[in-house]
């Protein structure tokens, strides 16, 4: 054992590798982005190709309020992580719960929009190409928000039970990456559906 | 092979126990649940319900395994260390760049700018001869330009009058195409002229255009018969030669620079001992 | 030591072994499960191929009905890509990557198990279609829309019942598994390397798996998206691919091939890794042009993302579209050529040992070159207009998949079997396997180009006599029998050698990468102490302390 000439004796530089949680989450985000890219491409390709109405302009209203909610939830998430890194678990819990509430408002807003479209306007996924692409793209995003909310809730419960400590900030940060991704996707979906597509 | 002292690649001292991830049935159960949930879509809905239940159970089980801390089990380490025999045999070295090989590699080359200059000069010569052809044969400077542009941008058969007229988009396409190709061929000339044994201008300016024209002459009818009908092959050859000779003359007038004396082996990333300087020759090993 | 651990394994109760398989999070066991699972499906797809070759061996054959023939070629293709090639490569990657980079396990061991089970259940789910509905005798409701399942063939109108849904759902399930595996590979390779194992010192196999992981992320996901759209169309009345409502069937083609073409590179790139590990060891020389090799692989990955529509020249794209995809496709030849030259330069001047792994690699070099050349031919749009969807295309991609991928996988088996089991594969049987399979391969696929040039379309269940296709098809079918015989020798060799093969020792090939620095088979923890490396060939450095590699890097 002692005589092993190929061994690096006494490393000058410490051996640092990237965090696997972060790399794993970024990889997952790349995969998810590719899924969204295909749905967005389909949406853009089918803009104005529906054979009959209604058109986006007739039924869609721009959802400013819930957009603001979702985007600001990214900010509160960021503050939550920053406070956790300093070990202030109480303010972490507060920021985290605000994030959760903002996300829930967004999801509820999307739900209300859909309810309006389906029951008042009679506009469903079967109506025309616009319906198919609209519900699938927004629905795909909403399903990601839902998954995020489940994660947020679990962490919130653990946090309120006092189980989240400073050493968990790494894992919370990895989760935050996902939440920021969901928000960023909404910016794209919003632009495509409510600005370009209208 | 002379076997010396046993050796091991280990860096750290060998521990008595190693922590490994504990076995877990939950991931498999979650996968089974998802599959059954999917199976409900092609079979009985009961399957979906069972699958959903399994998903929840598997998900919670998995969650409890990794949170708050990954569950591990300690595996005791086999006392016997792995040994690797050491050999003091030297490997033979490949003969590196010797005189016969060296002869084929130029010691001096033209700088990249020479190729670009040559290509641009050639492009002017070629354009002049091509436009001369257009004016003489059809009375239009646009005729050859439109033909060149049509290589990438033409959908249907058109009349001679249309080809003789001015089209801005064809002019743009043709200009881009002409300049890009000219510069690329000029660079190629700059790279290969020093390697041609004798009379580089003759080879590059006459022989290469002849071969290229002959190749196109024989296959263009298959690739693009419409275009083929419009090509005057004699003029085509003349413009090619004009390009070759001018580009060649410009290139050879440039000042040569010595080749990159960085060893080829290092540039190709070969690791054969003896082909490159040892890192440790000047500096002690890290 | 090897025999001891084999003996230990025999003494465990069967129930315990089953529990270990189901619950394991160990990368080596999961890797083995992937490999065994893939070999099982290799035999299944081989049987499907033999059945089709019997049907096509002579004109006007009635051995199979048209319906059964459609199901066979659909399942042969789908199984081959998703349940043979990908799992077997995941298996080798799982087993070898942590060993080669000096890690104790994958980055996410439980995700690894989950990914395996998703892939496995996806495959079983696909074959469950045989037992659904009509049952086994009427071949149930197995999918029959071809492996790329063009719309509108998959619409509820043309594909009633659930046959297409089995296909869609099984690929969705397996897709989740593949993405999980890719995430795991990337995280493992980037985050679990042992001290000193910088990216520029990583074994090429690890590099190739990294590129494969990245490609999977951006290729399987579009497939998943397209499958979700197809599900929306079939289950809840969407109109994505419904022309009656203004939908476009060409969209499906684009989405499928955005996945489908890079997928070929997902399969071949880890095989490049096998060749890059085996060729240097059996030429007794370090890999020539390591950085060029890495750069070429990464650029193949990128270029492959922009070539998909060369599968669609006959659809009628604008001429700029055709020109773009012709050019990008031809560009692929540049990095691939760099690789071929690097391997040749590695062999050049080496002290070559013609053991079975090397034989398969040399076979690969020749066949992959020819496959690439027919690929360049097909990349030329006018040529493709003539031969698209003919047997020429079938011959071309089987040249890649069998002549390229399968040959290197065999090479990998002969090379790493001693590490995995502790016993050598029988060399004589290995040579028989190589030569018989080689002859069978060339009989089948060399001669398959010719009926393609003569106009025989792919996916026909039979053909009329007198078109000049009979002889060529008969030769192809005879070749298939040779290939089956070769595979049987291989399976026999693996079983016999497992019990009676010569003991391998830790390092039977005198190789240079870290997996040979531990016992065969490796212990659960891989390395007693974490290794440290200073060069691309850590074992060389230890074996030749007077002349270590790190002096030259």
Write structural notes for this entry.
The complex is a heterotrimer of chains A (198), B (286) and C (553). Chain A is mainly alpha-helical. Chain A has a domain at 63-196: Up-down Bundle (Four Helix Bundle (Hemerythrin (Met), subunit A)), CATH 1.20.120.80. Helix content of chain A is 73%, strand content 0%. The longest helix of chain A is centred in the middle third of the chain and has 32 residues, at 89-120. Chain A is elongated. The model of chain A is unreliable at 1-11 (pLDDT under 50). The longest helix of chain B is centred in the middle third of the chain and has 27 residues, at 112-138. In chain B, the strands form two sheets. Chain B has a two-stranded antiparallel sheet. Chain B is elongated, with a radius of gyration of 35 Å. Mean pLDDT of chain B is 78; it is low at 1-7, 98-103 and 273-286. Chain B has helices spanning 26-39, 45-66, 99-104, 112-138, 142-149, 160-164, 168-192, 200-223, 225-230, 233-253, 264-268; strands at 17-21, 72-76, 108-109, 257-258. Chain B folds into two domains: 17-76, no CATH class; 106-258, no CATH class. Chain C has 553 residues and is mostly helical. Chain C has a single domain, classed as Cytochrome c oxidase-like, subunit I domain (Cytochrome C Oxidase, Chain A). Chain C has helices spanning 2-11, 14-23, 27-56, 66-100, 109-128, 163-191, 204-235, 249-283, 290-304, 319-331, 333-347, 356-379, 381-387, 391-421, 427-453, 470-500, 538-543. Chain C is globular and about 70 Å long.
Task: Provide a short characterization of the protein structure.
Helix content of chain A is 73%, strand content 0%. Chain A is an all-alpha fold and 198 residues long. Chain B folds into two domains: 17-76, no CATH class; 106-258, no CATH class.
The rounded distance between the terminal residues' Cα atoms of chain C is: 35 Å
Uncertain runs of chain A are 1-11
SSE string of chain C: HHHHHHHHHHHHHHHHH
* H and E order of chain A: HHHHHH
The tally of beta strands of chain A, per DSSP, is 0
* CATH fold-level topology of the domain at 63-196 in chain A: Four Helix Bundle (Hemerythrin (Met), subunit A)
Tell me, what's the shape of chain A? elongated
CATH architecture of the domain at 63-196 in chain A: Up-down Bundle
The top level CATH class name of the domain at 63-196 in chain A: Mainly Alpha
Quantity of strands of chain C, as a count: 0
**Overall number of domains of chain C:** 1
Radius of gyration of chain C: 23 Å
Residue share in helix of chain C: 55-70%
Largest sheet of chain A: none
Largest interface: B-C, 63 and 82 residues
Which class of secondary structure composition applies to the elements of chain A? Answer: mainly alpha
Distance between the termini of chain A: 72 Å
Mean pLDDT of chain C: 91
Overall, the morphology of chain C is: globular
């Amino acid at each position: 054992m002692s005589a092993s000439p190929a061994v690096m004796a006494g490393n000058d530089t410490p051996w640092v590798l990237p965090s696997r949680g972060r790399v794993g989450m970024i990889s997952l985000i790349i995969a998810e982005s590719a899924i969204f890219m295909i749905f967005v491409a389909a949406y853009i390709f089918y803009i104005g190709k529906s054979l009959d109405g209604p058109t986006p302009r007739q039924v869609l209203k721009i959802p400013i309020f819930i957009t603001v909610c979702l985007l600001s939830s990214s900010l509160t998430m960021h503050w939550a992580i920053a406070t956790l890194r300093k070990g202030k678990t109480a303010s972490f819990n507060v920021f985290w719960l605000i994030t959760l509430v903002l996300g829930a408002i967004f999801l509820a807003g999307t739900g209300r929009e859909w309810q309006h479209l389906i029951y008042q306007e009679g506009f469903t996924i079967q109506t025309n190409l616009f319906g198919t692409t609209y519900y699938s793209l927004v629905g795909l995003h909403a399903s990601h928000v839902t998954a995020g909310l489940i994660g947020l809730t679990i962490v919130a419960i653990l946090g309120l039970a006092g189980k989240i400590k400073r050493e968990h900030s790494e894992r919370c940060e990895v989760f935050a990456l996902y939440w920021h991704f969901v928000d960023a996707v909404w910016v794209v979906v919003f632009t495509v559906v409510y600005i370009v597509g209208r | 092979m002379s076997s010396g002292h046993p050796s091991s690649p280990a860096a750290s001292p060998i521990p008595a126990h190693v922590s490994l991830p504990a076995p877990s049935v939950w991931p498999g159960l979650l996968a089974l649940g998802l599959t059954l949930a999917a199976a409900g879509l092609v079979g009985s809905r009961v399957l979906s319900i069972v699958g959903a239940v399994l998903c929840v159970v598997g998900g919670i089980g998995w969650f409890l395994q990794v949170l708050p801390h990954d569950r591990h089990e300690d595996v005791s380490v086999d006392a016997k260390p792995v040994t690797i025999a050491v050999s003091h045999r030297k490997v033979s070295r490949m003969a590196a760049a010797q005189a016969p090989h060296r002869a084929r590699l130029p010691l001096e080359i033209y700088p990249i700018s020479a190729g670009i200059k040559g290509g641009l000069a050639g492009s002017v010569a070629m354009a002049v001869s091509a436009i001369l052809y257009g004016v003489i044969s059809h009375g239009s400077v646009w005729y050859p330009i439109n033909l060149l542009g049509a290589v990438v941008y033409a959908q249907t058969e058109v009349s001679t009058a249309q080809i003789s007229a001015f089209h801005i988009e064809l002019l743009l396409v043709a200009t881009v195409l002409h300049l890009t190709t000219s510069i690329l061929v000029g660079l190629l000339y700059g790279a290969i002229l020093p390697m041609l044994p004798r009379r580089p201008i003759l080879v590059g300016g006459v022989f290469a255009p002849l071969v290229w024209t002959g190749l196109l002459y024989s296959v263009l009818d298959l690739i693009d018969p419409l275009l083929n009908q419009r090509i005057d092959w004699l003029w085509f050859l003349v413009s090619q030669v004009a390009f070759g000779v001018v580009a060649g003359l410009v290139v050879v007038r440039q000042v040569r620079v010595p080749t990159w004396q960085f060893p080829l082996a290092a540039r190709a990333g070969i690791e054969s001992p003896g082909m490159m300087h040892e890192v440790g020759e000047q500096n002690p090993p890290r | 030591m090897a025999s001891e651990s084999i003996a230990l394994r025999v003494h465990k109760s069967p129930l315990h072994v089953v529990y270990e398989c189901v619950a394991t999070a160990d990368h080596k066991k999961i890797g083995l499960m992937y490999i065994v699972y893939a070999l099982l499906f290799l035999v299944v797809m081989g049987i499907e191929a033999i059945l089709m070759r019997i049907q096509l061996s002579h004109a006007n054959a009635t051995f199979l009905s048209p319906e059964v023939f459609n199901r066979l070629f659909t399942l042969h293709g789908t199984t081959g890509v998703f349940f043979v090639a990908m799992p077997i490569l995941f298996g080798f990657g799982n087993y070898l990557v942590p060993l080669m980079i000096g890690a104790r396990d994958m980055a996410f061991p439980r995700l690894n198990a989950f990914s395996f089970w998703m892939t496995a259940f996806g495959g079983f789910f696909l074959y469950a279609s045989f037992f659904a509905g009509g049952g086994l005798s009427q071949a149930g409701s197995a999918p029959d829309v071809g492996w790329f399942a063009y719309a509108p063939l998959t619409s509820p109108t043309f594909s009633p019942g659930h046959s297409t849904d089995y296909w869609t759902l099984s690929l969705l399930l397996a897709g989740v598994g593949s993405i999980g595996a890719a995430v795991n590979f990337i995280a493992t390779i980037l985050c679990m390397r042992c001290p000193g194992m910088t990216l520029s010192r990583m074994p090429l196999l690890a590099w190739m798996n990294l590129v494969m992981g990245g490609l999977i992320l951006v290729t399987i996901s579009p497939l998943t998206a397209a499958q979700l759209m197809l599900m929306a169309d079939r289950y809840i009345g969407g109109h994505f691919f419904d022309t009656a409502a203004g939908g476009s069937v060409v969209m499906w083609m684009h989405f499928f091939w955005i996945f489908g073409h890079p997928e070929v590179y997902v399969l071949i790139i880890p095989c490049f890794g096998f060749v890059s590990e085996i060729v240097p060891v059996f030429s007794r020389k370090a890999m020539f042009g390591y950085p060029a090799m890495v750069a070429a692989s990464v650029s193949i990955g990128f270029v492959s993302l922009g070539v998909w529509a060369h599968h669609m020249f006959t659809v009628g794209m604008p001429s700029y579209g055709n020109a773009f995809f012709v050019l990008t496709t031809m560009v692929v030849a540049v990095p691939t050529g760099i690789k071929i030259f690097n391997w040749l330069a590695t062999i050049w001047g080496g002290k070559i040992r013609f053991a079975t792994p090397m034989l398969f690699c040399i076979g690969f070099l020749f066949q992959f070159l020819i496959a690439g050349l027919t690929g360049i031919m097909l990349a030329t749009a006018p040529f493709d207009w003539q031969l698209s969807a003919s047997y020429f295309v079938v011959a071309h991609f089987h040249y890649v998949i069998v002549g390229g991928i399968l040959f290197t996988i065999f090479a990998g088996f002969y090379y790493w079997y001693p590490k995995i089991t502790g016993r050598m594969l029988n060399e004589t049987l290995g040579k028989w396997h190589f030569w018989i399979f080689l002859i069978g391969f060339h009989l089948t696929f060399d001669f398959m180009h010719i009926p393609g040039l003569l106009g025989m379309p792919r996916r026909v269940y039979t053909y009329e006599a007198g078109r000049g296709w009979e002889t060529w098809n008969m030769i192809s079918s005879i070749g298939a029998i040779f290939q089956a015989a070769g595979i049987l020798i291989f399976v026999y060799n693996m079983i016999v050698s497992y019990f009676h093969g010569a003991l391998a020792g830790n390092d039977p090939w005198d190789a240079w990468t870290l997996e040979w620095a531990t016992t065969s088979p490796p212990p659960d923890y891989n390395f007693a102490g974490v290794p440290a490396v200073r060069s691309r060939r850590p074992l060389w450095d230890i074996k030749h302390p007077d002349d270590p590699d790190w002096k030259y890097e």
